[in-house]
Amino acid sequence: MNAEHLKSSHFADYLRACQVIYDLKSKTKVEAFEELLDLLKENQLIKNRKPVLTRVIAREQLESTGIGHGIALPHARMDTGQDLAVAVGWSSEGLEFDAIDGQKVHLIILIVWNPVIPGLFNHVFAGIAKFLSNATYRSRLFQAGSGEDLCKTLSQIELEIPEMEDRIIHRAGLLWKLQEIELQKKKASPKEAKEFQAQSDLIRSELDSALVERFDRFMERYGFAVAEVQHGVCMGCYINVATGMGSAIEGSNDIYVCENCGKFLVASKSE
Ligand SMILES: [Zn+2]
Known about the structure:
By secondary structure, this protein is an alpha/beta fold. It has 10 helices and 10 strands. Helix 4 runs antiparallel to helix 5.
């Protein structure tokens, strides 16, 4: 483990109990963002709420950060003078989040990350994803009786250089979205194109650079980089995908690559 650009690789160093709201008052996700950003402002971890809120919402509109299991990881890319500014909120009622599994979100981990530090986003998300993929840790979080409890459990997260497996969690949807944006950008007026470029940059900033390079190579060569799988067939090359891969892709947001044509694969959007 070597996160040499970070001041610390322990999530605990970025999260104190005062950055946790155990009983969110909010009834909607935007209210929850506001409530959590107010907390960051009070703790002087951000200067102004508004620009951060705008970014968090813009990111949320691209793809819900509700990652399933009642957990959401909204985030904004912004230089706040720190590596990370983290706020955690718990809603016992749960909030509608348009999450990947359709469930309400109870636990929100909001992160403002500094783009000045190379690879920071991947460090943070690989660490959190690895932690949250563990059912024991998840149930400990959901049984927490106080903000201190939540804070203590989350403090066990270590930020790490992502393994390929961690890195591919919940990224396929973003690549698909990126492709849609790039295709729309081509047909857009110069003014609209600017807006699409801003959305494109937002997604690119949080994807692994090797993924983005591969994506761009395919876009340039073939006009598209991400292909749907329909009835076990890659729509990029019309060849059956590897046995088992088709069903693995179904209902998953992990990134798979067609073994025949090399394009990124997503489950069919039209079925
Ligand atoms: Zn293919």
